[in-house]
Write a structure and sequence with these properties.
Blueprint (H helix, E strand, L loop, with lengths): L1 H7 L1 H11 L4 E4 L2 E3 L6 H4 L10 H8 L3 E6 L4 E3 L12 E3 H7 L3 E7 L17 E2 L6 E4 L17 E5 L10 H14 L4 E4 L10 E4 L14 E3 L4 H10 L11 E4 L23 H10 L19 E4 L9 E3 L17 E5 L12 H8 L10 H8 L3 H7 L4 H6 L2 H11 L7
Parallel strand pairs: 3-6, 3-9, 6-8, 9-10, 10-13
Antiparallel strand pairs: 1-2, 4-5, 7-8, 11-12, 14-16, 15-16
Helix pairs in contact: 6-7
Length: 420
């Protein structure tokens, strides 16, 4: 119930953020600082993202040639009051750094691209940002790890991307490969930390190393309960970079954040996570990505529903027809009536739920149509989960099988938590 209360207060939290957080204001070429036209009490209660702490990281960037790993979530919250409203509530990190005379040489873009417009899994091409003229290097195209030539003549690389705390969400794999490439080329990495909207719990199957891939590079649970800054420290100090090398890593921490803090992301972290409900359900419904069941792509309720034409129509009173839309040019079962469940009003989750995956499997008219074996294993991080569902194990029995691995991970995790 405590989590539900926090979940309901999300709107109030962001109202406070948008009226409290500052934009870096250029004083002169040698100094920049945040300004907060609010009481100190409010400053001490609102979550401040790492990107807003300009006074902490600008000294690392001045008179340096900088690379930035960023997308549409790389934002700094603006300073405004009722008499002088900004047209927008935030500014992009890249725009802010340029305005502060930081020499950005190139931008690296993850899955979905720099502006977050590409479909999931769609290759993103290198290019030029039309707004700034900066060269954009895709880390979801020909290569997912920066090459030495792409890092050439850079003095430091800044990573600032909003994560959602799920192992198969590819931004953390991008971060790990960026850290690895920078370590190999003796380039420092600066991470601007952001809250994890699913950071209040740890759950799910732990990835087995034989299934290592871009949907999971390290043996962590499906939901790992860490911010990107905390996770970066874990990767570095646990020796999970290639050949155990270590990155020269600095993390600009959050202020006023705890793992049980309610946090709603103001910008879609990717095209098919449109709101807090989708983000909260994503650890559970994201497993449908490795099946032939639609999880809301091709609708305006992505990851808030599921269905397929081969689910028994008599078992459900809900149906929908996926159609191509923003972020999903060719959704599963496009143009076909899908039978399933609408979860858009589901209360906040504090665990990975298998109830819907088991429900869909049990109500499939042809069970051979459910799993895409290779894809499901990559998402689950193990072959066991599919085998357990096919064998008819209950959700409780399956989750009990995760317990030992989760306890081991929590012990490792505890060494790297920056926020309690």
């Amino acid at each position: 119930m405590a989590f539900l209360s926090r979940f309901k207060n999300t709107f109030l939290l962001w109202l406070l953020i948008l009226t409290a957080c500052g934009n870096p204001v250029k004083k002169d070429k040698d100094s920049a600082a945040l300004e907060f036209p609010v009481t100190k009490k409010l400053q001490d209660s609102v979550i401040i993202v790492g990107a807003n702490s300009t006074e902490d990281y600008l000294p690392y960037l001045r008179k340096k040639k900088v690379g930035v790993v960023a997308n549409q979530t790389s934002i700094i919250f603006k300073n405004y009051d009722s008499e002088n409203r900004a047209n927008e509530s935030f500014t992009h990190l890249v725009d802010s750094l340029l305005s502060l005379d930081i020499e950005i040489k190139r931008v690296f873009a993850p899955e979905h691209g720099f502006r977050g417009m590409a479909d999931a899994g769609e290759h993103v091409k290198d290019g030029t940002d039309t707004k700034t003229g900066l060269p954009i290097i895709s880390l979801y195209g020909k290569n997912r790890k920066p090459t030495s030539s792409q890092l050439d003549k850079l003095d430091i690389v800044v990573f600032d991307i909003q994560d959602v705390g799920v192992r198969f969400y590819t931004y953390i794999a991008t971060m790990q490969l960026v850290m690895e490439a920078c370590a190999e080329n003796s380039i420092p990495v600066l991470i601007l930390d952001r809250p994890n909207p699913n950071g209040h719990y740890v759950d799910g199957p732990t990835m087995e190393i034989e299934h290592k891939g871009f949907l999971g590079l390290t043996p962590i649970p499906l939901v790992y309960g860490m911010t990107i800054g905390e996770y970066a420290h874990m990767i570095n100090k646990e020796g999970w970079l290639e050949k155990g090398i270590k990155a020269d890593l600095t993390v600009i921490p959050l202020r006023n954040y705890k793992h049980n803090s309610s946090y709603s992301i103001p910008v879609r972290p990717s095209p098919n996570l449109p709101n807090q409900t989708a983000i909260n359900l994503y650890p559970s419904l994201g497993l449908f990505e490795g099946t032939n069941i639609n999880a809301g792509r091709g609708t305006e309720s992505q990851f808030q529903r599921y269905g397929a034409p081969f689910l028994d129509s008599t078992a459900y009173d809900f149906s929908y027809v996926p159609k191509p839309n923003f972020g999903s040019k060719n959704p599963k079962h496009t143009g076909k009536k899908c039978f399933g469940k609408d979860l858009s009003a589901w209360p906040g989750m504090s665990e990975v739920s298998l109830q819907w995956l088991i429900d869909a499997y049990n109500n499939a008219t042809d069970k051979k149509l459910v799993f895409n074996r290779s894809g499901f294993t990559k998402h689950a991080g193990t072959e066991k989960l599919q085998q357990q569902i096919e064998a008819g194990l209950s959700e409780k029995e399956i989750k009990n099988s995760w317990r030992s691995d989760l306890e081991k991970f929590k012990q490792i995790r505890s060494k790297y938590l920056l926020y309690k």
